[in-house]
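Give me C-alpha cells for this 367-residue protein.
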Amino acid sequence: MIEIKNLTKRYGDKTAVDNVSFTVNDGEILGFLGPNGAGKSTTMNILTGYLSATEGQCIIGGHDILEEPTEAKKKIGYLPEHPPLYMDMTVDEYLSFMYDLKKVKVRASKKAHISAICDLVRITEVRGRVIKHLSKGYKQRVGIAQALLGNPEVLILDEPTVGLDPKQIIEIRTLIENLSQNHTVILSSHILSEIQAVCDRVIVISRGKIVADDTEENLSNRLSKDFRYEIRVEGPRKEVQQLLETMPQMKEVLFNGEKEKGVFEFQVEAKGNIDIRREMIKRINERGWMILGLRSSAMTLEDIFLQLTNDTYADEKAPVEPETEAAEAELGVEESVEEVFSAMEEAAVEESVPVDASAEDNKEEES
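Here you go.
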C-alpha cells in the first residue's frame, strides 16, 4: 500500500531525512517514533504531499505523491497534531464543508456518507453542536471524521491522543484498532504506551535515519539478548541486593518490590553477552536463600526507544526541521498556508451550510 524508497530531504547543508526506505502493508498499524528533530515530521509532511523530497520516491496505492499528487492524496486521510477545525461551525456544517472541499466521490449520498462516519467515530449525538463547545476528546473525534471522508485507504494520524484524559485515550485507541480493519494506519505519537498497545510494527527514526523497523516483540528479543532477568528471592532484602550488585558480571540491579512477605523481586541485567544465571543461582544458594522465581525480562518499548536513540543524538545537534515559510518557499507557494485555506473556504462556502450558533447551548459537551 505504501512504499518509501530512498527518501532524502535536505535544507542547505542540513539533512533532515537521510535515505529512508520502508513499506506499510494493507491493514497494518505502523507506529512511527523518533525524538524531537529526528526527521519524523518531515517524513510525514512528504507522505501527505505538503513537502517535496530532495531525492527518492513516496508511493501511495501505486501513485507517486510527487508525480501524481491528486491521485495519491485521494488515498490519504490526515489528522495533524492540531486538528484543522473551524470552531464556529457545527460538526455537521464542518463535515459537509470538508466533504465539498475534498471533492469526495463515493457511492453513497453525501448525507449517508457523513452519517456513517459519525456513527463510526461516535459523534452522532453532537452533530448539531458548535465545535468550540465540544470537549477535547470530541474535537479529536471530529478531526478523525474529516480524515475519513472519502474512505481513504491510508490514515496518517499525528499525536491523536495528545491532551486527552485516560478514558478518552482508551476510546481513541479502540477506534484506531477498529479503523485498521478497513484502512492502513500510520500512527505517530510520543506516548509510547499507545504505540505499544495499538501498533503491529514499529519504526524508530533518529537523526534522519531509520534505526529500527520490526515488531516490538522482535526488537525486544533482539536488543535484550536474554541477559536481563527478573528474580524473586526469599531472604533479607538488603543483603540479597548487595550480593547481586557485587557480582563482577552484573551491570544493573533494580528492586521491584516485596511480592510476598519476605520475598523480594529484583530486575538484573548482565554486562555484555554474559549469561549470569548459573553464577547468580550458585551464590544465592550458598547463602541459604531460596529462589522462588527466575525469568527473562522483555524490554519495554520505552527501553527500546531509549537504547536506539540515546547514543545517536545525545552528542550532536539534531537536524533542523523546516519552518512553515521555508516549506512554502520550496514549494513555490506565494500565499501563506492561512491564505490558501481562506481561498479554498471562499470557493466552497456557497455549498456549505450557513453557521448558526445562536441556538447553541453554551455548555461544553462532557467527554
